[in-house]
Design a protein that fits this description.
By secondary structure, the chain is an all-alpha fold. Helix content is about 80%, strand content about 0%. The protein contains 4 helices and no strands. The model has no long low-confidence stretch (mean pLDDT about 95).
């Protein structure tokens, strides 16, 4: 995603005339720092909602289901969703080159 952020900044600069690279960098850094904590808390809450008991020698069927959902199935679904988003990403190599050429032309005439 970080390698794509420069393309997103260029796209925004072409369409708005303003460089928001710092804003995107700050947003990505914030998300990178905050989402692991949020996802860990959500995962623990979800496992607990299914009946996971950390002190039990063996888990109930609900606890086992919660573990499987939280640590295998839901992350796999999330990865597939992310892959679908990236697969349909509109800024491919050709479009990025067009944007960079338009920016270079605009910068030359400015």
């Amino acid at each position: 995603v970080y390698t794509m952020s420069a393309d997103v900044v260029d796209y925004g600069r072409l369409h708005t005339g303003e460089d928001h690279g710092g804003l995107y960098g700050a947003l990505f850094a914030f998300l990178q720092k905050s989402l692991p904590g949020i996802s860990a808390a959500a995962g623990l809450a979800l496992v607990g909602a299914f009946g996971f008991d950390a002190t039990a020698a063996t888990q109930s069927a609900g606890g086992v289901l919660g573990i499987k959902l939280t640590f295998a199935i839901l992350p796999a679904v999330g990865m597939l969703a992310g892959a679908a988003i990236i697969w349909n990403y509109p800024l491919g190599r050709a479009r990025t080159e067009e944007i960079q050429a338009a920016l270079a032309e605009r910068d030359r005439t400015a």
